[in-house]
Design brief:
7 helices, 8-stranded mixed β-sheet, 10 strands, 34% helix, Spore Coat Polysaccharide Biosynthesis Protein SpsA, Chain A, alpha/beta, 211 residues, globular
């Protein structure tokens, strides 16, 4: 069931370790990017894609509407891209989930779980062994946008700095495994080996459903 949450997908990275555009990788009968779009469309109201300046995007699935915005400056990192996405959201947006083009295993209930912990905070994010995951997190758009713009004005480009600057509710392994026992939502495809592993996981999931 869709919630009143929006989503931002960052898809303009260089994909240097993958060696080719991640967004175009075949995955589950569509491109990897559109697999992520389709999953999010089941959970949220609106999806914003932040693409590279000259990036050619695959066509979205039939019936899924997206807002496409583009990086104003190339190679300025994910914090700049997220700020661009936040600025593109309609003024009535109250909660937004941020993710990347290479995270195809969003668990059902993950976004709702994070939203449930947002009260009294500006963001809710996974934190495992001291590492925060800013691209599997929920934000309050206006506050996050202002904080991101302040960081960028100071020359800070690290995405994790955004969570550090906000009132962030950290969620640990036990809380996250309530909806995602394997923490597959946090799986990113950075290298060809990661991609091959994800394809095997996808096929395993199909077999599990068939059985």
């Amino acid at each position: 069931m869709r919630s009143a949450t929006d989503a931002i997908i960052l898809c303009g990275g260089r994909s240097r370790r993958m060696g080719r555009s991640k967004a175009d990788l075949p995955f589950d009968g569509v491109s990897l990017l559109m697999r992520v779009v389709a999953r999010l469309a089941e959970e949220v109201e609106r999806v914003v894609l932040v693409a590279g300046m000259d990036q050619v995007l695959p066509a979205p699935p039939v019936g899924v509407g997206v807002i496409v915005v583009r990086d104003a400056v190339a190679d300025r990192g994910p914090l700049t891209a997220l700020a661009t996405g936040l600025a593109a959201l309609p003024t009535d947006s109250e909660v937004v989930y941020a993710t990347s083009t290479d995270a195809p295993f969003l668990a059902r209930g993950w976004i709702a779980l994070l939203v449930g912990y947002l009260e009294g905070h500006d963001a809710a994010a996974p934190r495992i062994e001291g590492r925060r995951f800013p691209l599997a997190a929920i934000y309050r758009p206006r506050v996050a946008r202002e904080a991101a713009e302040e960081l960028l004005a100071r020359g800070e480009l690290r995405l994790t700095s955004l969570l550090d600057s906000l009132r962030t509710r950290d969620l640990g392994v036990d809380e996250l495994r309530i909806v995602d026992p394997d923490l597959a939502t946090l799986c990113n495809l950075n290298t060809p080996m990661d991609y091959e592993r994800a394809l095997r996981l996808l096929e395993h999931g199909r077999h599990a459903v068939e059985e």
